[in-house]
Amino acid sequence: MKMPPELLCMIMLKRGLFIVLILLCACPLFGKRKDDIVIMTNGDKFTGEIKSLQNGELIFKSDYMKDSVHLDWKKVKSLQSKDTFIVSLTNGTRVTGLIGKEETPAEDGKDFKIVGEEAPVEITVSEVIAIGQREASFWNQLTGSINYGFSFASGNKQTDSSLGADVAFRTAKNSVQLAATSQFGSQTNAKNTNRFTFDSQYARQLSEKWLAAGLFSLLRSNQQDLSLRSTYGGALGRKLVQTDRTSLTVLGGAAFNHESYVPQPGTEPIHNNVESLFGVTFSTFRFKTLNLRSETLAFPSLSDPGRLRLSSQSGLRIELIRNFNWNFDLYENYDTRPPITAPKNDLGITTSIGWTF
Q1: Where does a domain end: 139, 169, 201?
Q2: What would the pLDDT profile of 244-286 be if each residue is shown by its tens digit?
Q3: Model's pTM, two decimal places?
Q4: What is the dihedral of CA 355, 241, 204, 92, to 10 degrees?
Q5: DSSP secondary structure code for residue 340 in this structure
Q6: Residue-wise pLDDT tens digits, 281-315
Q7: By three-state DSSP, how is residue 193 classified?
Q8: DSSP state of 35
Q9: Based on the domain organization, do 132 and 155 belong to the same domain?
């Protein structure tokens, strides 16, 4: 008996999430101290727990604080901790060890030190792009967001709803990212629209500039009469730009996809396709104001020469108040030659309110 695409999609999604959680829970356990010291350029001194550094923001929590505070990394004068952290550098490497930032740089300008099992690493603070805890609860090592958007027009009773979530986990060499979105629209005297996506990516750092990546994605879109498309791919990537605020990476590899379309007379609804893969990912951040990210993937077909698929996702996030944001997202899936009579393009814009963690 043939399994419905909706049920198959949910089963694959649940299995993927279960495997990732098992891997995350298998990480070694560490204790976390509460006596980290951070001194700002204006003289403010904080004692407590360094949570992380991401997007140019040092997230810090003290016992006397109800919520964590976000500190501008460029305005941190000195920092001391007796805990072990995973530090990501602009050259693409990740180093694990104790961290410290000196008030007065050395003669060579180096003012940040990482002391691990091997020789200490001395660098400038501008070379540090991210800091993550290595502690007991893997939940505190996760980063991500949840967002929801809704709109209604009384004239034609048009309703649009969007829901999205993403989560990421990183170690010294590996990273896992998961993201899912769902859009639904209805309008009087018009066909309802619905769209579901699930994207997962695994990356392993091979050298300072090179990485290996694997991806798995699901797409369901009645706009293109697509019941379900599952894509499996592998690629090599090279980081062209990597700073504390901006990242630019290119990818190249191969992919396989399995497609199930809405049945039409005289057409075959099930298709398998072998493709090459080329992609570009870009992100840039500004302290507490702007987060811009974009990813474009091109899939020239090898088994069906002349066919080309494009998948693009871009998002703008602006912080409204502590950890709450306004989001503007643009997505597009384009197929130059669908195997059935269906629209070539699936383009959409969503706005939403979100929470990051």
Answers
A1: 139
A2: 778 899 999 999 999 999 888 878 888 899 999 999 999 988 7
A3: 0.73
A4: -100
A5: S
A6: 999 887 667 789 999 999 999 999 999 999 999 99
A7: strand
A8: -
A9: no
